[in-house]
Write a structure and sequence with these properties.
- Helices cover 22% and strands 28% of the residues.
- By secondary structure, it is an alpha/beta fold.
- The chain has two domains: 282 residues, Spore Coat Polysaccharide Biosynthesis Protein SpsA, Chain A (Alpha-Beta Complex), CATH 3.90.550; 118 residues, Hexapeptide repeat proteins (UDP N-Acetylglucosamine Acyltransferase, domain 1), CATH 2.160.10.10.
- Strands 1, 4, 5, 6, 8, 9, 10, 11 and 12 form a nine-stranded mixed sheet that branches. Strands 15, 17, 19, 21, 23, 24, 25 and 26 form an eight-stranded mixed sheet that branches.
- Helix 1 crosses helix 6.
Length: 436
């Protein structure tokens, strides 16, 4: 029997040399519109200075996985630019992070029809090297996972496919694909978003598994799929040798009949950033004294593009529970529960409460910018509440932005409202004295 140290060395070698990560960039991102109007969903800014795609890529790098493809098909220019500037490995490391956008080929000219279809259409690229394991990850989730633990279990159990699962209660179970496992963790059944109470009862987690995870057995829990998969090479090739379109709805149920499929039980913070509301709440949670997700973990840092900006300058502002990114200038403003992005300019007398300000890509007068366009930033004596201000937005003086008294969903030439949150699209100019 191998020692724990030799097993860790083996797992590390497998992840470094034999594992390819495939990050699903998603479709048009309509539920995150207008943040996805001009960018791919993985390129949406997060926590002031990051992008959504930085989360799964950083999880890979911190786990020793250095060969990563990101699949996308909509508005991939900014995503390409971000990845090219950020993830550069030396020539001896064999590492890379590359975007694979949907393209016309001799096999077809259509868009990806689902997660499985996206992998199938690029399978020839994935099989060019001698990878034995393939990690399928989502590009719009906020979590921190050590894939060394996932791979270690995958090797120990001899699984053909390992699926990361999260314990959820009965109220939340109807929104997930739910796994039925035995006490050893092998998956025998998969039900997509079960609504019937009797069906749900049959899917509850074994008491032994709950106790091993340190959870009580009084309240039933269910193993929800996180959309994170580890496939053996042959199992992936065979699973995609058909016209099935989606992993969760099609591939996984079919695989249970043919392969040894095991669950990896994850315990920790995990959020699917799929809607404006979930995006908004996940960002503002980072402002809490003790947030659910910790960007300050030096053992597993989140990587992003280094911009070499000056330190933020604060001139007499009142700030409470906020994240302030690099290169900002905040003057005599009141900021409460807000994420302030790169190069944000906020003038005196302005109040910002429960907001995400994404900042700007440039300062006023930067080379190549339109001299006739107002500079990005927020003017004097504004009141902005419960809003997302996308990049490069100019807001004049005496502007009020609030969802109060408005419908939960609304479209206007200057703004959108989604889930009761006002969203100002990228590059918008809001004239002085405007009331939204």
């Amino acid at each position: 029997m191998s020692s724990p140290i030799s097993h860790r060395i083996q797992t590390g070698t497998v992840l470094r040399n034999s594992t390819l990560a495939i990050i699903m960039g998603g479709g048009a991102g309509s539920r995150l519109y207008p943040l996805t109007k001009d960018r791919a969903k993985p390129a949406v800014p997060l926590a002031g200075k990051y992008r959504l795609v930085d989360i799964p890529i950083s999880n890979c790098i911190n786990s020793g996985v250095r060969q990563v493809f990101v699949l996308t098909q909509f508005n991939s220019a900014s995503l390409n630019r971000h990845i090219a500037r950020t993830y550069k490995f030396d020539q001896f490391a064999r590492g890379f992070v590359e975007v694979l956008a949907a393209q016309q080929t001799p096999e077809g000219e259509r868009w990806y029809q689902g997660t499985a279809d996206a992998v199938r259409m690029n399978l020839r690229y994935f099989l060019e090297s001698d990878h034995e394991y393939y990690m399928i990850l989502s590009g719009d989730q906020l979590y921190r996972m050590d894939f060394r633990l996932v791979m270690s279990q995958h090797l120990e159990t001899g699984a053909d496919l390992t699926i990361a699962t999260l314990p959820v209660n009965a109220r939340d179970a109807s929104g997930f694909g739910i796994m039925k496992t035995d006490e050893e963790g092998r998956i025998h059944e998969f039900v997509e978003k079960p609504k019937d109470p009797e069906v749900l009862e049959a899917l509850r987690m074994p008491d032994k598994t709950l106790l091993e995870m340190g959870l009580g057995v009084d309240e039933p829990r269910y193993q929800a799929s996180m959309g994170i998969y580890v496939f053996n090479r042959q199992a992936l090739v065979e699973s995609l040798d058909n016209d099935l379109m989606d992993f969760g709805k099609n591939i996984i149920p079919a695989a249970l009949k043919k392969y040894h499929v095991h669950a990896f039980n994850f315990q920790g913070y995990w959020e699917d950033i799929g809607t404006i509301r979930s995006f908004f709440e996940a960002n503002l949670d980072l402002c809490k004294l003790v947030p659910q997700y910790d960007f300050f973990d030096s053992a597993a840092p989140i990587f992003t593009h280094a911009r070499f900006l000056p330190a933020t300058k604060i001139n007499g502002a009142q700030i409470r529970q906020a994240l302030i990114s690099d290169g900002c200038i905040i003057t005599d403003a009141h900021v409460e529960t807000a994420v302030i992005g790169l190069r944000s300019i906020i003038e005196s007398g302005t109040t910002i409460r429960d907001c995400i300000i994404m900042g700007a890509d440039f300062y006023a007068g930067a080379a190549g910018t339109d001299p006739n366009r107002p500079a990005p930033g927020i003017g004097r004596n504004c009141r902005i509440e419960r809003a997302i201000i996308d990049k490069n937005v100019h807001i004049g003086d005496n502007v009020v932005i609030t969802p109060s008294g408005k419908p939960d969903k609304m479209d206007h030439e200057l703004f959108c409202i989604r889930d009761g949150i006002v969203v100002i699209p990228k590059d918008t100019v809001i004239p002085s004295n405007t009331w939204i």
